[in-house]
Amino acid sequence: MDEENVTTKVNALYAALENIDKISPLVPGVVERLRTMSRVHADAAGTTGGMKDIRERLGRMEKDLKEWEEGLSKVEIALKEVGGQIGGVAERIEQVVSGLEDRVKKLSM
């Protein structure tokens, strides 16, 4: 490098020193804020991931609940059918028993 170029660069650095001295007290606060914002952004990214997981779990739970409701509905229908059949059988048994009781009474007389 030639001497004139070096002198120009040194003069520019001295001129910048005045500005650097003015803003140097602000640098630690700015750096601390940047670190804080970095943590906030990292936390926000983690929260976003957590929310995605929660949404997926809720979706699976809703699907499971629908399947359970469908299964329960089928069981209820089957129980009603069986209940109706049992009721019919019970009536027939009562009729048969009543008929047998009448026969026994006739035989006893």
Structure description:
The protein has 109 residues and is an all-alpha fold. It has one domain. The chain contains two helices and no strands. It is rod-shaped and about 145 Å long. The model has no long low-confidence stretch (mean pLDDT 88).
Summary keywords:
mainly alpha, 109 residues, single chain, 2 helices
- The dominant shape is rod-shaped
For the largest beta-sheet, the strand count, sense and barrel status come to:
none
Helix/strand structural class: mainly alpha
- Secondary-structure element pattern, one letter each: HH
Q: Percent helix among the residues?
A: over 70%
Blueprint (SSEs and pairs):
Blueprint: H1 3-23, H2 27-108
Question: Can you summarize this structure?
Answer:
This protein is mainly alpha-helical and 109 residues long. The protein contains 2 helices and no strands.
